[in-house]
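Ticket #4471: structure export looks truncated?
Reporter: QA, pipeline team
Priority: medium

Steps to reproduce: submit the single chain below to the structure queue and open the exported record.
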Amino acid sequence: MPNSKIAGIGYYVPERVVSNDKLTEYMDTTDDWIKERTGIEERRYAVKHEETTSSMGAKAARIAIERAGISPEEVDFIIFATLSPDYYFPGCGVLLQRELGITKTEIGALDIRNQCSGFIYGLSIADQFIKSGMYKNILLVGAEMHSMGLDFSTRGRNVTVIFGDGAGAALIQASEAEGGLLTTKLHSDGTYAEKLSFMSPGAHGGFHHNKAGLDIDFGWPTKEEPGEIFVTQKMKDEGHLYPHMEGQFVFKLAVQKFPEVINEALTEVGLQASDLDMFIPHQANLRISQFVQKRMGLRDDQVWNNIQKYGNTTAASIPIAMAEAWEAGKIKEGDLVCLAAFGSGFTWGSALIRW
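Actual output as written to the record:
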């Protein structure tokens, strides 16, 4: 049975840098307020009407494919992770295929919606396909264009200041050599799904909110009619068309689940945190990463954080950080690398890689 290895990685972030001070032009906030709560100093925003989630993903993908030493035509499966797709449907996988000019091969394209842990979920899926012998070269992309769907007012600042745009990619390849992807661990718990969510527009009609015990009036028509509208005036007026997050709840759960899922993976392969050469957490919040680092007893040189520069790029954050760390020479052949993420759903996961 072949092993799965990361044969090539790449990332792309837009040229436009948006500082914390720039955001003060739109909302009541300060540079110190943002840095104290998140560690973020700036983020990148894509060019509206010119760049999209899939076009950024294609830029990262081309780098990963070239570094893997193959041609785009040799890719035999695509996995695309995002929460901010170009379209409601179809998904970004086929759009990426078109951007790369490889539609003639008619390979499969899978879109996954696991938000912050999307890249790790995608990595686990790719690993199973490789080990089964079904595919040999799988292109895994995580990309986000958050800037098109944020509330740039004081009402939305707790969420808006956190997120940025970008894309990362990895070419997962079959290998007969030892090492590669050692294990992945995936978990979820939908009990508190609405505490970090983008609920409307959607087809729920308020059903799930009532089930979750939330008192939210979205202004849905009381009379049931075919073709009931997705967007109401009340949603627009009260800001329900933007992401919702209960920050303290998410923070407390994240700092619990991160160490658990990391230790679960380490225990399976008979290793411990001190054996790690590099830990790359999903860049959700610098304070979360620092808390987990302390809990795991890791040194600064064992952890890669770049949220200060890019903000939270959700499904793209791990591949961007991994590619950046590799380019900086912080990940070398034979190194033990741990990836971990926690996010909306809630879903969380980890992966151990012998580089």
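Status: closed, not a bug. The export was complete when the record was re-opened. Leaving a note from the reviewer for reference: The chain has a mean pLDDT of 93.
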